């Protein structure tokens, strides 16, 4: 029996050894198979590029759209979603789906985008409900370095950062160089830029380029050209480069007068800016080292123009360095960068900013305006000028925190943007003078009359008394609202605008010339002819920022000396300057002639109406804010009186149907006499309200020149 038991034990030991050997061989076989699969994957990478990485890892949105094979007339499924989750749809819906659901929430790493994937790559643990088992496919990301699948975006970013900290930045997916994407080359003002296929989609592309902002770039260039005539060379910064089009135009046309720095925090944008610099035969300076590219330069051509390209946050570079000219053009509001811009800007330098958050500035999202600008606004007839004054008020407060004052040189509010250009005046006294110009506005919601509140901190018993109208006494309830705080000073500097017009004419910027003519007339609040700009530009003296500028007949040789208080060319007289500026300052806000037209009456032509206001002794001009707006110092009651006097009934055979709303101070007898006198005038002087003309006039590309002729 003992022998039999020992034999059985030996047999059991042999069986255990055999099973262990079998397990070891199986493990070795699985390891060899996995290594073979990896090797085969690497071979596939070298042989076929689309199979080198997961389809959710792409460089550009266009590459992701190529996987879907978008066609206009066919329904296509999403390449990153299962059919049971997202059904096949047409190209426009699929494009929006890929853009918003996959590309917008992607994680960027070394030029690649790891998009979110909904395919059955990572199954979620099954949920047992009763007798049924539900298994879902969770959304996840594919790591470009180690091929791991991670569900949350924040976890994916932390996972990539751990790879970077360990030095594991090389990926097996980047063995083969990425194919060169088809870039489109655009040309503007003799400057070529290479852009991505989706360049016109903001926040979803690395190099956003908007052709509709051409007028904005021309105005900024003219402002920089004027500053370049004052002192040379000047250091200028384009804080948000994108494609680098603006900085390239500065360097290409102004040459050695400027030292251009183009900054962007996106790595792909910085690469695009460098390529565009070489495309325009410019040298690139990176990290204080000059990068010479002989191939980019022409044969035998020597070009000393150098552009510095930096990759920093805009706030960081403006804190580290000083500049003479700074331009801010972020996507949306620019209030987050104002403190940094005024921190190190040099004395008598210029800060320009473009705000594209028009939904809040134009009172469509009033809560956003309160959150960003700390300003209470409502929709008014002068909402565009209100937007400009909101931005200037924010600029003034930011400059005052740095003990700096401002002088507003230019304010433009058009369909797509609000542009403000200010000159910086160092010192607490200019800061106090600028801060005093921030005041509240009282606006009547019945008649659209408006007036700035009086200076002082004392509370008034009846603030309605400040309004010229009597709507509070004749209408029930509360009729007025308090808007602001707003900038109450001038929006333009006439001398600077004339010099900008000269630079626009010198460089052949036609669109800017047309707008600057209007701005000069609006700044002077006059209806002079366009050629008056030339005659007034050649005056011996111009006053700007309290500094008298000698302007010889050769305007290109104009000289402005800043910073030298004791000089023959520079005369400072703050008291006299303020008195003269207050007397010649253009009136605040404007009236829309259609908003105050009388029902049943045909109003006169706008240019004729301007001449009638001038004959009555008021200052008057047209405005770029509104094609049918009239800027005048006449009260609203007198404005309506003159409009009523020179309007004619719609029906010449008798009085118009329905009651005719009389203006304040106009009696019924005066209305009948005005109507009788107006019948004898030529019918060509009167025009019906044509909405199509107004809509056509508001287009920025066909911007009219609002200088009235004889």
Protein described:
This protein has 710 residues and is of the alpha+beta class. Among the domains are: 57-123 and 137-165, no CATH class; 495-524, no CATH class; 590-649, Phenylalanyl-tRNA Synthetase, Chain B, domain 1 (2-Layer Sandwich), CATH 3.30.56.70. Helices cover 37% and strands 17% of the residues. The chain is built from 22 helices and 28 strands. The strands form nine sheets. A nine-stranded mixed beta sheet has the order 13-12-14-11-10-15-16-18-17, sandwiched between helices. A hairpin with a 2-residue loop joins β8 (184-188) and β9. α5 (214-230) crosses α15, α8 packs parallel to α9 and α15 (494-506) runs antiparallel to α16. The longest helix is centred in the N-terminal third of the chain and has 46 residues, at 2-47. The model is unreliable at 1-12, 33-51, 128-135, 174-181, 288-303, 530-583 and 653-710 (pLDDT under 50).
Unreliable spans are 1-12, 33-51, 128-135, 174-181, 288-303, 530-583, 653-710
Radius of gyration: 34 Å
Number of helices: 22
Strand order of the largest sheet: 13-12-14-11-10-15-16-18-17
User: What shape does the CA trace take?
Assistant: globular
Which structural category do the helix and sheet elements fall into? alpha+beta
Whole-Å distance between the termini? 134 Å
For the largest beta-sheet, the strand count, sense and barrel status come to: 9 strands, mixed
Indicate the proportion of strand residues. 15-25%
Helix fraction by DSSP (H/I, runs of at least 4): 25-40%
Mean pLDDT, nearest integer? 76
Quaternary: single chain
How many E strands? 28
């Amino acid at each position: 029996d003992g022998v039999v038991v020992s034999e059985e034990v030996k047999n059991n030991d042999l069986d255990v050894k055999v099973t262990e050997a079998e397990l070891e061989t199986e493990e070795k076989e699985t390891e060899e198979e996995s290594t073979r699969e990896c090797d085969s994957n690497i071979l596939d990478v070298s042989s076929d590029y689309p199979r080198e990485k997961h389809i959710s890892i792409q460089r550009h949105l266009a590459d992701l759209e190529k996987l879907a094979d978008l066609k206009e007339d066919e329904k296509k499924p999403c390449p990153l979603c299962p059919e049971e989750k997202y059904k096949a749809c047409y190209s426009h819906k699929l494009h929006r789906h890929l853009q918003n659901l996959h590309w917008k929430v992607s994680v960027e790493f070394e030029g690649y985008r790891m998009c979110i994937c909904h395919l059955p790559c990572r199954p979620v643990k099954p949920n047992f409900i009763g007798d049924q088992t539900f298994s879902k496919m969770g959304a996840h990301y594919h790591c470009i370095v180690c091929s791991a699948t991670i569900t949350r975006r924040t976890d994916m970013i932390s996972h990539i950062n751990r790879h970077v900290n360990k030095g594991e930045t090389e990926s097996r997916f980047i063995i083969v160089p990425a194919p060169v994407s088809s870039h489109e080359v655009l040309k503007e003002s003799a400057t070529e830029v290479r852009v991505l296929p989706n360049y016109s989609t903001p926040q979803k592309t690395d190099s956003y380029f908007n052709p509709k902002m051409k007028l904005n770039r021309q105005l900024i260039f003219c402002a920089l050209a004027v500053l370049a005539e004052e002192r040379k060379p000047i250091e200028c910064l384009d804080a948000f480069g994108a494609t680098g089009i603006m900085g390239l135009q500065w360097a290409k046309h102004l040459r050695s007068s400027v030292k251009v720095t183009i900054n962007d925090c996106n790595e792909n944008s910085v690469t695009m800016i460098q390529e565009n610099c070489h495309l325009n035969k410019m040298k690139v300076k990176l990290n204080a080292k000059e990068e010479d590219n002989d191939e980019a330069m022409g044969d035998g051509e020597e070009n000393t123009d150098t552009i510095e390209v930096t990759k920093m946050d805009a706030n960081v570079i403006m804190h580290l360095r000083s500049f003479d000219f700074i331009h801010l053009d972020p996507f949306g509001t620019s209030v987050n960068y104002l403190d940094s811009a005024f921190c190190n800007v040099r004395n008598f330098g210029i800060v320009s900013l473009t705000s594209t958050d028009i939904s809040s500035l134009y009172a469509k999202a009033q809560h956003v305006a309160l959150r960003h600008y700390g300003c209470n606004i409502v929709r008014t007839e002068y909402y565009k000028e209100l937007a400009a004054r909101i931005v200037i008020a924010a600029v003034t407060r930011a400059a005052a925190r740095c003990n700096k004052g401002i002088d507003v040189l230019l304010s433009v509010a058009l369909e797509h943007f609000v542009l403000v250009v200010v000159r910086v005046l160092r010192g607490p006294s200019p800061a106090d003078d600028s801060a005093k110009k921030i005041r509240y506005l009282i606006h009547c919601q019945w008649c659209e009359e408006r007036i700035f509140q009086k200076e002082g901190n004392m509370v008034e018993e009846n603030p309605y008394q400040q309004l010229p109208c009597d709507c509070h006494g004749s209408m029930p309830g509360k009729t007025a609202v308090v808007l602001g705080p707003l900038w109450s000073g001038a929006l333009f500097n006439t001398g600077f605008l004339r010099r900008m017009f000269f630079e626009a004419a010198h460089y052949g910027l036609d669109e800017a010339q047309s707008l600057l003519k209007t701005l000069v007339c609006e700044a002077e609040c006059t209806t002079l002819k366009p050629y008056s700009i030339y005659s007034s530009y050649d005056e011996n003296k111009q006053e700007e920022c309290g500094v008298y500028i000698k302007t010889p007949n050769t305007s290109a040789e104009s000289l402005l000396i800043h910073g030298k208080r004791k000089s023959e060319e520079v005369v400072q007289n703050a008291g006299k300057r303020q008195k003269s500026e207050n007397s010649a300052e253009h009136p605040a806000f404007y009236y829309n002639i259609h908003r105050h037209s009388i029902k049943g009456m045909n109003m006169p032509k706008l240019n004729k109406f301007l001449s009638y206001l001038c004959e009555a002794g008021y200052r008057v001009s047209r405005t770029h804010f509104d094609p049918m707006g009239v800027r005048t110092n006449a009260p609203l009651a007198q404005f309506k009186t003159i409009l009523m006097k020179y309007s004619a009934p719609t029906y010449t055979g008798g009085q118009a149907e329905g009651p005719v709303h009389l203006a304040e101070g106009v009696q019924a007898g005066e209305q009948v006499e005005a109507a009788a006198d107006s019948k004898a005038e030529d019918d060509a002087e009167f025009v019906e309200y044509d909405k199509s003309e107004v809509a056509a006039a508001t287009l920025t590309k066909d911007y009219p020149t609002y200088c009235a002729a004889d």
